[in-house]
Amino acid sequence: MFKSDIGRTIAAIACTIVFSATCVAGAVGPAATHHAATVSAARQTA
Q1: R_g of the chain, CA atoms, integer Å
Q2: How far apart are CA 7 and CA 44, in angstroms?
């Protein structure tokens, strides 16, 4: 049972890290791409 509890804890921590990283990448990725496109378009029109 001790190994089972450790396994569950490690799995929960690993899932939390992966889920958090995915959420951050999903939020930051489009914002960074949109910002780069906006700056590029502004430079071309100026």
Answers
A1: 20
A2: 55
How far apart, in whole angstroms, are the C-alpha atoms of residue 24 and residue 43? Answer: 28
Cα(19)–Cα(25) distance, integer angstroms: 10
pLDDT digits 0-9 by tens, 33-44: 666 555 555 555
DSSP 46: -
Start-end of H helices in 1-46: 2-45
What is the overall mean pLDDT for the chain? Answer: 76
Look at residues 21, 22, 19 and name the one whose alpha carbon lies nearest to residue 11.
19
Higher pLDDT residue, 21 or 30?
21
